[in-house]
Amino acid sequence: MSVGTIPASTISRQSRLPGWLRSIALLRESPLGIIGAFLVAFWIIMAVGAPWLAPYDPNDNDFDIGIIAPPSAVHWLGTDDQARDILSRIIWGSRIVLTIAPMATLCAYLVGCAMGLLAGYYRGWVDTALMQVCNVILSFPVLLLYVIIMMKFGPSALNIVVAVTFVASPQVARLVRSQTLELREREYVAAAKMRGEPAWYIMLVEILPNARGPLIVDACLRMGYTAITIGILGFLGLGLRPPDPDWGGMIGAGYSYVMGGQVHMALAPALALSSLVVGLSLLADGLREISLRD
Known about the structure:
The protein is mainly α. Helices cover about 70% and strands about 0% of the residues.
């Protein structure tokens, strides 16, 4: 048996497990996937447990310690330019990122899957019309679209979700379309047509579940991209309104103090954002290995 090959007995045992348990079992065979899952799980725990894990209220000012205080036993990551505890703001900021990013990704997938399924299944003029719409949106620089949308409608969590849905759904649609074009020629789709199943049933029950492997991997990567987008918008002042603890806004607020040697204000939230994005990327790599083995 070559290195990295899963024993036949292990595959046999895993094949009897439910789908989600089988995925977890196979993920154990991917070291990078395990590291990614650990990083993502860490931030999920931080987000869920923020009211109990954060040592201070994220908007409380501790002027007794002073503004831009360095890390100490009282404030482990120091304080920002308004004497607020940086660690508490990072922990509470994880709740915001891990709420908006999955929600925006889900909305982008709902729109993108609908467009991709219709285009790939019906083809013809439906495919042409939908893909032309996607091509027009994709022809604009992504960051420029985000900035235009946020400047037009104003910074808020809802507008971030709308912007991500508008920009990312064409990318999802192209992926779903390519999968649909391939899967619509399979025998089980032909059998469903012979049974007289309606088109919506064939698309949602026969085609979409069988395209889940690439879509799940892409969803993990896309959540990482969305987290970066939230950070960029916050850095540019187009993210959430103050005083919400937005990681990007924290990096932007601390950036001007870096040259003065006060690097902790920008470094701590930047490392938090990077670790979450790296975790989602490594988890996607692990899930890609699962899809190849399963």
